[in-house]
Design a protein that fits this description.
By secondary structure, the chain is of the alpha+beta class. The chain has six helices and 22 strands. A hairpin with a 4-residue loop joins strand 17 and strand 18. Keywords: Kelch repeat, Repeat.
Amino acid sequence: MASAIPKKDVVRPDKGFSDLVWENFHEFYDQEKHIDVTFLWRSYPERITAHRVILAAASVYFDELFQTKQGSAPAIYIENIAPDEFELLIAYCYTGRLNPKMNNVSRLLNGATILKLDGAAALCTAYLKGSTERSRPLRIPAFQLPSNHPTSSNTNTNKSILAVRQSIGKQDTESCIYRCDEMEKIWIQCGVLKFPTQRAVLVYSNKRLITLGGISPQNLPMTCVHSCNLETQIWRKLPPMKVARVGLCAVAVDGIIYAIGGYMSPQYIATMTAEKFDPSTGQWTSVPSMCVSRAESTAVAIDHQIYIIGGVGIDREELKSVECYNIKTGKWRKCADMLQGRFNCGVKVS
């Protein structure tokens, strides 16, 4: 039976349709929809999912590999390529874009050679020769983020400050991620999150930006959690929290994400509950509740102890109380009160 697909020289391609298909593929990849292959490592907890047809079209290596790996959704263990570089190369298969850096270009070139991604290997080689042309990022004067959206959360990565220009309303569901280059005193756009994330809280952990909770377009607290690899700028959905929260505080300790307090239920009542997420198991588990119900508080971790500072109490009062959670003992204790009540305050540990 003759193929129903016309030859390239017979019918002019519909570029708009092609763009739509690729945009959908990107969305499927970001949200892990319709995935049919999972890549694993014996020495790392990471797992990366993708679509076999895309990878096979991009690489002879994957085409030959999938002919030997049958099944509806095979799990394949990867050798000789670390997860960070492998994820960048998988993203290249979807986008045709790769941004090598001095700290990973050699590993990317090795991985591209193994995976027979000639275009990616050429980009790495050009970078090493100093001939790669880089597009300039969006540059905004430091400490003057775009004002058409509220910025409700920021976090420190030890090298730079990250902030989110949050989305608002039912029609505006795109949030921009900015990084402040403190040397050049500019803000640089470094990612976009196409989910409703008004008043989500941010956490930085293991080269990833995590957003937790927030308010839905229906004005309800949310359980959603998303993770952005800051090198690939690819967002993925993570398992949702056990409790819908907004105005929570969060902190990462040894790769474990803690979500603490916040408002819950449609009445926006402050809660004392807390939970933690372990990326190695992909599960949320409850931790002991705080001594006081609070939202809009600030969390900071020091030597395996999490300090929760101020916030708004169950009667909407500004709290001056401080409490501490000992991760090793699993117990909370009250600390000395501040001189006055504060909420959404900033904290710096030095």
